[in-house]
Amino acid sequence: MNISIFGLGYVGCVGMGCLAQAGHKVIGVDVQQLKVDLINRGEATIVEKDIDKIIKEQFQQKNIRATTDHLDAVLNSDVSIICVGTPSSSKGHLNLDHIYQTAEQIGRALKNKGGFHVVAIRSTVMPGTNQRVGEIVKRASGKKRNQGFSVVSNPEFLREGSAVHDYFNPPLTVLGGDSEKAIEIMERLYEKINGPKERVDIKAAEMIKYVNNSFHALKVTFANEVGNICQHLGIDSHEVMRIFCLDRQLNLSPYYLKPGFAFGGSCLPKDLKALNALAHDLYLETPVLNSIEKSNENQKDRAFHMIEKSGKKKIGILGLSFKVGTDDLRNSPIVDVIEKLNGKGYELRIHDQNISFSRLVGKNKSFVEEKLPHLCKLLQDDLDALLQWAEVIVIANKNECYQGISTRKGQTIIDLVRVAALESKDQYEGICW
């Protein structure tokens, strides 16, 4: 396949060499003559393991060349990959001028070109950029999107120092587009790349790199805060984190990485507070650990405000325990929401088939007596009757009996756990989806 790559920096240079090694013909485009000259001498534009050898080899085999002429590059390629920089402003916003200028150049070139052309965005950009690039290309080329051209979001996952290895062995290849033809072309482009290929929504493809890198940053700071605490206690922090990383059932897994309601229960809140208290006693700053509880409280507030915004007063709560299949109410986040609703004068009825007021004992009972002293009056055994009575249904856990509930016209559904069967209903709202 004939490929043009716009931007011969880190991502562009690695992409050029690796695509050529995979059997494609690649034309690099850059505004800096120096980078163009380096490629045309068979030299890499960056310092990175193995890429200098690949560029030299592929240049000698006449699989790569570079130019400052965007028209030449587009007219002689089937796919144009945008790898230009997206620098940050002083306030953290992205400067996408280079992206849009490149889109304009590609569009003007396509005006003189027949056939179908794919524009792939590899640069890290915010959601909505793909659409904007498509509009620019459409205006500059006079062609219709998904007829004369298409725009695919294809974020890269390269680490400096191992970029060549990462290129051929990514965790996955993400392709976000609205053209089956364009996606199929991109899949052929990457047919020699290891790992799964994920077809996703365009905006999800644009978002994923920011989520990845923010999570990586979170992991670094989390490990550092743990390390600081361990050092003060004479504990080998690397050994602690080694053990932590051995748990792939919970710690390094998708288990807790599903957007939804706040956490609760007897363990997470208690142990988090204990670790923060320990850090405080050691005179250590742990801003990441300290912020977790506040963020959790924000999610409870979000649920309350969703109910408040409905403007309705009869609220039916489905699920009271902090985890489905248990009767544990300790630190159940929905209890805090109910307490607040009760204080604001809302009419409440609650259903949870695992909760019986007469069977509550110990800390479970004392917690409820403190938070919801009138719980026995709020609990309802008859789910159907509650559903008929309520103006707002709040689903707070994934009990099977809530999966196929019948709702009536005008009834608001506020879902805190994502019950897929209910998403198509009128007046359905998910807490963060």
What does it look like?
By secondary structure, this protein is α/β, with parallel strands linked by helices. The chain folds into three domains: 2-200, NAD(P)-binding Rossmann-like Domain (Rossmann fold, 3-Layer(aba) Sandwich), CATH 3.40.50; 203-257; 296-430, 3-Layer(aba) Sandwich (Rossmann fold). It has helices at residues 10-21, 33-39, 51-60, 70-75, 97-110, 129-141, 163-168, 180-189, 202-232, 237-246, 268-281, 287-310, 333-343, 362-371, 375-378, 383-389, and strands at residues 2-6, 25-29, 64-67, 79-82, 117-121, 149-153, 173-176, 197-200, 314-318, 347-351, 392-395, 412-415, 428-430. A six-stranded parallel β-sheet has the order 3-2-1-4-5-6, sandwiched between helices. It has a five-stranded parallel β-sheet with strand order 10-9-11-12-13, with helices on both faces. Strand 5 (117-121), helix 6 and strand 6 (149-153) form a beta-alpha-beta unit. The longest helix has 31 residues, at 202-232.
Summary, kept brief:
This protein is 44% helix and 13% strand. The chain is an alpha/beta fold.
Structural topology:
Layout lengths: L1 E5 L3 H12 L3 E5 L3 H7 L11 H10 L3 E4 L2 H6 L3 E4 L14 H14 L6 E5 L7 H13 L7 E5 L9 H6 L4 E4 L3 H10 L7 E4 L1 H31 L4 H10 L21 H14 L5 H24 L3 E5 L14 H11 L3 E5 L10 H10 L3 H4 L4 H7 L2 E4 L16 E4 L12 E3 L3
Parallel strand pairs: 1-2, 1-4, 2-3, 4-5, 5-6, 7-8, 9-10, 9-11, 11-12, 12-13
Helix pairs in contact: 1-3, 5-6, 9-10, 11-12, 12-13
